[in-house]
Amino acid sequence: MLKEGVHDCLAQHKPVLLAEPLSLLVDPPCTVRVSIGPVLASSPKSRGAVLVLSDVTALVIAEAQLHHQATHDPLTGLPNRTLIQDRLQQLLAASQRRGDGVGVLFIDLDRFKRINDGAGHPIGDQVLRTVGLRLQALCRAEDTVGRWGGDEFVILLSGDNLGENCQLVARKLIGEISELIMVERVSYHLGASIGIALAPDDASNAEDLIRLADLAMYRAKKAGGDSFAFASPDMNRSSSQRLEIEVSLRQALLQCEFEVYYQPQFAIGQQQLTGLEALIRWNRPGIGLTPPDEFIPIAEDSGLINEIGRWVLNEVGRQLREWLDAGCVVVPVAVNVSARQCQDFKLVDEIRSLLARHAIPARLLEIEITETAAVQNMEHMTNLLGQLSGLGVKLAIDDFGTGYSSLGHLKCLPISVLKIDKSFVSGTPGNHEDCSISRATIALAHSLGMKVVAEGVENEQQRAFLDAEACDIAQGYLFSKPIQAAGIVSLFLKAAGNAGKGSIDEGP
Ligand code: C2E
Ligand code: MG
Ligand code: MG
Q1: N or C end of the chain, less CB within 10 A?
Q2: Of 243, 232, 237, which Cα lies nearest the Cα of 292?
Q3: What's the pTM?
Q4: Does residue 264's CB lie within 6 angstroms of at least one atom of ligand 1?
Q5: What number does the ligand 1 atom closest to the CA of 279 have?
Q6: Average pLDDT for residues 69-90, to the nearest whole number?
Q7: What is the position in ligand 1's atom list of the atom closest to the CA of 475?
Q8: Half-sphere exposure (CA, 13 Å, Cβ side) for 263?
Q9: How many A from CA of 102 to the centre of ligand 2?
Q10: 73 with 84: CB under 8 angstroms?
Q11: Residue among 279, 272, 280, 267 nearest 454 (CA)
Q12: CA-CA distance, 76 to 143, in Å (whole number)?
């Protein structure tokens, strides 16, 4: 740059100011601005240039500091909102060129407000700094870890296999943040709720991705905290679309537009029918069969889940009675129950009266509660689940592994069945980590006297791996998709005649 400047100055006989300051290799380091002036003389031999160097080191440092201040959070030193958005835009552009993806993790600390209000802001600040350091320590140098504001942090990841990677990072983060934080010889215990949104699947612009990750975080928090949630298709809907679904859901209850499908479960070794899971479907006029993931979250948010859940329980009770009356050798039916239905003890009364009304043996009903709901309010849940198990119904923990509770948390609950989430099963036998988690879950569940159901078994390799690991029961497309009640009777007949595998092709 200097050579060119001198050349321009001599050629044009004009002063030149170098556009960029130069760093001089001296000790201490020094930055100078350079202006070059021509020395005019009659003979070309005596022509030359004068270089004037002005020391701008302090100015450059001040500028860099200003830039840093504008783009970093003063408390933690992490990138702030502006820089996070900027980096996300750059990552999105780069990933579009490469054809891979970008993941946004939106992290909100659980119980931080209590510490900040109770112990005071200086302690709260220390806690936030420690969290910032822990987050950074967990991520790679090329990942962005930033503070969004308050007790919210954002992490940006890019590359292949993003869904799995984000899940892995989220799990590690929750573990890391839940480790006690010591400030001035007092230890504090925090948790984290994390929402994950992925580009290009969930959205392809920075603003929408952060909004979706934030919404997913809110859902993780509502499910009890200390957990993560992925953005789901229903979040992408505008609030007016959600409202429309909510209104249609009310209508659906009145017009009987719901139907229960049943997915069989088989003993993993002998492939003998051992149970059914009841899964709701919505026959939406003009739209068709709508899966629960598209409306259950809206029903949960609006509180309609209580009525829908009651309808499902009743329908399953009615169906069980019909099968019993037809002389079928009936197996237990598992019904999914949302966290919101567990908030009070009404559920116990409802199930008690349901069993009495249809004269159904309690052992034929199983209640599935997600892991996150089960550990949400341990004291209340211990009480509620105790009462339910007192009725004689079996209790199962659904989606185990997604909520980051340890089995230790669950051992005081009267649970007899543990369902390994399909996100782990799908990784077996190829993914080392999924295999280890599945293996450990089976061993621990057995040591606590629980039976283990593997969800989402789709191929023979997965079944064989789980069988070898002594998993008890399998449920998944390898055996059957969820099917209408009418299709179940032939399964009962087969089971009664011990006619083997019972594979069904039909289903939504
Ligand atoms: P879940 O309780 O974990 O149910 C298992 C889900 O995995 C079902 O999705 C089932 O169709 C699906 N599945 C089973 N085998 C396979 C497989 O091999 N591969 C794949 N890819 N998927 C498989 P579905 O029926 O769409 O239900 C989704 C979720 O909606 C359920 O997850 C449950 O959390 C919720 N849900 C369903 N019915 C009810 C209900 O009556 N009440 C409540 N509260 N939630 C419900
Ligand atoms: Mg379930
Ligand atoms: Mg499940």
Answers
A1: N
A2: 232
A3: 0.66
A4: no
A5: 38
A6: 93
A7: 15
A8: 23
A9: 30
A10: no
A11: 267
A12: 16
Own/partner contacts of 48-57, CB < 8 Å, gap of 24 or more, are 48/10, 49/6, 49/9, 49/10, 51/6, 55/30, 55/31, 56/21, 56/31, 56/32, 57/29, 57/30, 57/31, 57/32
The token pair at 225 is 């905290």
Structure tokens at 3: 């050579």
Q: Is 311 in the pocket of ligand 1 (CB under 6 A)?
A: no
Query: What are 169-216's pLDDT values in tens digits?
Result: 999 999 999 999 999 988 898 999 999 999 998 998 999 999 999 989
More confident residue, 22 or 366: 366
Nearest protein Cα to ligand 1, atom 20: 456
Q: What own/partner pairs with CB < 8 Å and gap ≥ 24 does 404-408 have?
A: 404/171, 404/174, 404/175, 404/226, 404/227, 404/228, 405/226, 405/371, 405/372, 405/374, 405/375, 407/441, 407/444, 407/445, 407/448
Ligand 1 test: best mutation among 294, 296, 478, most atoms within 8 Å of CB?
Answer: 296
pLDDT at 71 over 50: yes
Q: What is the pLDDT of residues 301-326, one digit of tens each?
A: 888 999 999 999 999 999 999 999 99
Ligand at minimal distance from the CA of 334 is: 2
What are the structure tokens assigned to 97, written together? Answer: 């060129």
Calculate the CA dihedral of residues 328, 332, 333, 338 and round it to 10 degrees.
Answer: 160
Among the bound ligands, the one closest to the CA of 338: 1
